[in-house]
Specification:
Blueprint: E1 20-26, E2 29-35, H1 37-53, H2 68-92, H3 105-114
Antiparallel strand pairs: 1-2
Keywords: DNA-binding
Organism: Polymorphospora lycopeni
InterPro entries: E3-bd_dom_sf, Lsr2-like_dimerization, Lsr2_dim_dom, Lsr2_DNA-bd
Length: about 120
């Protein structure tokens, strides 16, 4: 007997088709949510300032196969481009910033203040 199981993801925010399951944590509690590409992007964009300012502790468990590769590819190019723009702005405005590594918080704060 053959069996075919089809799993359909539904976006937990708007009820439309979802593209992936996203994992995140806060306050020591881990959450998982099914989201469309658009809603996953909104979540990441809203968390970006906190991720940039925070310290990474590492992963506490295995990643969901549907969340990790897509989430990296969706945000990495955007963050890299933004970091390039911040580094260029910093150099033009008298800040010393290395070409690699973490951008100092004072530079991030000054950049964000200047671009409001």
């Amino acid at each position: 007997m053959a069996r075919q199981v089809i799993t359909t993801l539904i976006d937990d925010l708007d009820g439309k088709p979802a593209d992936r399951t996203v994992e995140f944590g806060i306050g020591g509690v881990k959450y998982t949510i099914d989201l469309s590409e658009a809603n996953a992007g909104k979540l990441r964009t809203s968390l970006d300032p906190y991720i940039e300012a925070g310290r990474r502790l590492g992963r506490s468990g295995p990643a969901s196969p549907t969340s990790r590769p897509a989430s990296r590819s969706a945000t990495a190019p955007n963050r890299r481009q933004e970091n390039r723009e911040i580094r260029d702005w910093a150099a033009q405005n008298g800040f010393e910033v290395s070409v690699r590594g973490r951008i100092p918080q004072e530079v991030l704060d000054a950049y964000r203040t200047a671009h409001r």
